[in-house]
Amino acid sequence: MSGKEINPSPIRPDTTLSELIDSAFEAYNAARLREACHLYAKKMLADDVTVGVSLTGALTPAGLGMSCLIPLMEQGFIDWIVSTGANLYHDAHFGIGLSMHRGRAKVHDPELRREGVVRIYDIFFDYEVLLTTDRFFREVIKAPEFQKDMSTAEFHYKIGGYIEQREQVLGQESKSLLAVAHRQEIPIYTPSPGDSSIGMNIAAEALDGGGLRLDISRDVNETAAIVLAAKRCGGKSGVFILGGGAPKNFLLQTEPQIQEVLGIQEKGHDYYLQITDARPDTGGLSGATPGEAVSWGKVDPDQLPDAVVCYIDSTVALPLMTAYALANHPPRQPRKLYARLPEMLDALRTEHETVRSTNS
Predict the structure, then answer these.
(1) Residue 25 scores a pLDDT above 80
(2) Helical segments of the chain, H only
(3) Strand 80-83, strand 188-189: pairing
(4) Closest C-alpha to 70, from 167, 145, 158
(5) Catalytic residue among 175, 236, 248, 298
(6) In this structure, is residue 359 part of a structural domain?
(7) Angle separating helix axes 216-232 and 245-252, nearest 10 degrees
(8) pTM
(9) Is residue 17 domain-resident?
(10) Is residue 9 in some structural domain?
(11) Is 298 a catalytic residue?
(12) Interstrand relation of 271-276 and 236-242 (parallel, antiparallel or unpaired)
């Protein structure tokens, strides 16, 4: 009975979004969304917290890259990203001047196929968008700088530079989170790089003798190094999970990599925030709770009060949370983690070698 009394003010024509969330979102998943907004804006965005975000589901085709993720990145509210390759591929459409359109879910798909229209639920776009984007990636990755092994973070950083150049030629404002990540030096990782059209085009170039190889082992170590560096400088690590899937696990497995595999003393992520529509009782990773993550060492058990799971569609929650964060927290200084990856990886290697020599 110590909780705040439920006594919301009537919603007025001039009620702000922050007032709406703070006052009217009293219970059930509305209350979880309020808690999510408070956790993100009032705790996770503290200057000493390194914020990692994972992206699953077709968020960028729905415009959430432009409306939400880019503003958060530009305000210093996102420090590193784990994403499906599909989100990054579709993000590139906007950056190179292509368009996607509102459609409808109830439609005769064989007719769309005949007309050369591709559908993502209720998003429509011309089949030529795929072919043009494929040509863009194929042409870019033929450049000499791509003819080597590299992490997906390095690959996305380089690709983002080319997209940024294309946006400048087109005279358009930044529409691509890859371009903004390049400018802000925000590392972006893809845990399953072959599972997208980007990976498919890399594979096609490999058939033609291309030398680009994505080094997923480096990704695993770099992401662990980012988290360890956040902790070793006296700060905290926060994870903001949109959806679930492989990006969720890749974001969270940084702590088991540090503790279980490398043998380095650590306790887990400090802040856990997830937006999901997946149920926990089916046993899938997408619906796994922060409590379950504690059992793996992914989340610090002492920080479970600062763990929120909101069961709502990301396309509803993310715009609300973005607006709330922008209204309630000043910009943060960008961490520019991409430039610091070599030194953070060296620090991880040194600590691992110390542990190994101590135990041998």
Answers:
(1) yes
(2) 17-19, 28-39, 64, 70-74, 85-95, 109-115, 127-140, 152-170, 177-184, 197-207, 216-232, 245-252, 254-256, 290-295, 314-328, 337-359
(3) parallel
(4) 167
(5) 298
(6) no
(7) 50
(8) 0.95
(9) no
(10) no
(11) yes
(12) parallel
User: What is the token pair recorded at 134?
Assistant: 């494929």
Residues with Cβ within 8 Å of 134's Cβ and at least 6 positions away in sequence, in order, are 197, 201
Distance (Å, rounded) from C-alpha 38 to C-alpha 236?
Answer: 17
Using CA atoms of 270, 273, 277, 283 in order, give the dihedral in degrees to the nearest 10: 0
Q: Which domain holds residue 132?
A: 27-354
- 3-state secondary structure at position 105: coil
325 assigned to some structural domain: yes
Question: Encoding tokens for residue 86?
Answer: 């599909």
pLDDT tens readout for residues 112-163: 999 999 999 999 999 999 999 999 999 999 999 999 999 999 999 999 999 9
Angle (CA) 9-11-16 rounded to 5° is 105
- Domain of residue 206, CATH code: 3.40.910.10
Give me the number of domains the chain comprises: 1
When pLDDT is averaged across residues 71-90 and rounded to a whole number, the result is 98
Question: Diameter of the chain by CA atoms?
Answer: 69
pLDDT at 105 over 90: yes
